Amino acid sequence: MRILRAGDHKRMPWKNGGGETVEIAVSPEDAGLAGFDWRVSMATVATDGAFSIFPGIDRTLAILDGNGMVLDIEGSAPVLLTTAGDPLAFPADIPVAARLQDGAITDLNVMTRRDGLAHTLIRIDIDGGKSVPLASSTCLLLCHRGALSFRKDDESGALSAGDALLMTDAAGTAVEIDGEARCYLVSITTP
Known about the structure:
InterPro entries: RmlC-like_jellyroll, RmlC_Cupin_sf, Uncharacterised_HutD/Ves. This protein is an all-beta fold. The chain folds into two domains: 8-113, Jelly Rolls; 118-189, Jelly Rolls (Sandwich), CATH 2.60.120.10. It has no helices and 16 strands. The protein has strands spanning 2-4, 10-13, 20-27, 38-45, 49-50, 57-65, 69-73, 79-81, 88-91, 96-100, 105-113, 118-134, 138-152, 155-160, 164-167, 173-189. A hairpin with a 6-residue loop joins strand 2 (10-13) and strand 3. It is globular.
């Protein structure tokens, strides 16, 4: 397990130059935008516009803050994403345009290379104690709001808003969480 502190996340420009992304974790470490196997990042979207195209990549998006965003995904009906809604999975290599509902939003973006990996993204609200089962070898728990303490095997620690816990060799285990927080759990699998 490794704690990834919010202050250490890497800031970088979007692939299309339209904004800035905060990279939480990437594999392999220090991989660029063209060479990652998987990537977890956050971005603030302040204007309507097209998403960057990532050939061979699948993406899931969740709205962390703001009043929502409509995605126009080629070949599909427009979809409204909000902080209350479920994350949305879609291919990152087809045209997608975003329209803000009312002001800027912050999103959480998970991407995996389609030919070798798959992923899921779920929201978990913590109010007290909770045991979270881990089904994948690689899991990342992002504490978006609030604070929590965690225990897994013989290790323990704490996360504040923006911090993440990267867990490897996690399949078939669980992480025990205590606190009040809104979290997101990323699970990365080999299909």
